[in-house]
Design brief:
The chain contains no helices and eleven strands. By secondary structure, it is an all-beta fold. β4 and β5 form a beta hairpin.
Length: 123
């Protein structure tokens, strides 16, 4: 499956952005979907994940209550709604797809990755 993340940009602290991850090539609903981010000089970190049907989600503690992951299998697209953004949320956000059952693990050992989209939050 091929993935492409988009929707990043520059936003002030406290603002919102909605990222999207468009999938093509294979049945999107066959996979759990994940979002990761990487800040300059830091390791890539888990942000959120959702299972293949959308019935289960997991979040990093740092984004709980502010970010919401969702998906629309009919549109082959996943989303990450980001509210109350903070400067520490700045980074390159990438979406990834993995086998069913990977949504809860928080691991980046996933077979399919899209190019990231830059999110910059100014203070």
């Amino acid at each position: 499956v091929q993935l492409q993340a988009y929707g990043g940009g520059l936003v002030q602290a406290g603002g919102s952005l909605r990222l999207a991850c468009a999938a093509s090539g294979r049945t999107f609903s066959s996979y759990d979907m994940h979002w990761f981010r990487q800040a300059p000089g830091k390791e890539r970190e888990f942000v959120a994940a959702i299972n293949w049907s959308g019935s289960s989600t997991s979040y990093a503690d740092s984004v709980k209550g502010r970010f919401t992951i969702s998906r629309d299998n009919a549109k082959n697209t996943g989303y990450l709604q980001m509210n109350s953004l903070k400067p520490e949320d700045t980074g390159v956000y990438s979406c990834a797809a993995g086998p069913r059952g990977t949504w809860y693990a928080g691991s980046d050992a996933l077979p399919y990755w899209g190019q990231g989209t830059q999110v910059t939050v100014s203070s």
